[in-house]
UniProtKB/TrEMBL annotation:
InterPro entries: DUF7553. This is Uncharacterized protein. Residues 1-27 are annotated as: Disordered. Residues 1-18 have a biased composition (Polar residues).
Length: 89
């Protein structure tokens, strides 16, 4: 079962990756790969896993320019939308 919001977040991170320097770009690509994997797994991710990804995004958001930052913010919003469908916390 695909989780559209996580796929959208991964796409946004790839956009951010294209708009930023190499080191941050590599990290954004890694996070996008994680989200792609989580979007297609049989069982979905929990709040903790997504919170760790969002924490990494917050750190990266401080290191990138405005265009990449906007794409990271869009990815964060998509993750929040998905998290609203999860039970707990």
């Amino acid at each position: 079962m695909a989780r559209q919001q996580l796929e959208t977040a991964a796409t946004n991170l790839r956009t951010a990756s294209d708009a930023t320097a190499e080191e941050a770009s590599d990290r954004l690509d890694e996070l996008a790969d994680q989200l792609d994997d989580l979007a297609t797994r049989e069982s979905g991710p929990d709040h903790g896993r997504l919170a760790r990804i969002q924490s990494a995004l917050a750190d990266l958001d401080d290191e990138v320019g405005a265009d990449a930052g906007a794409a990271i913010d869009d990815a964060d919003d998509a993750i929040n939308t998905y998290r609203e469908t999860l039970e707990g916390v």
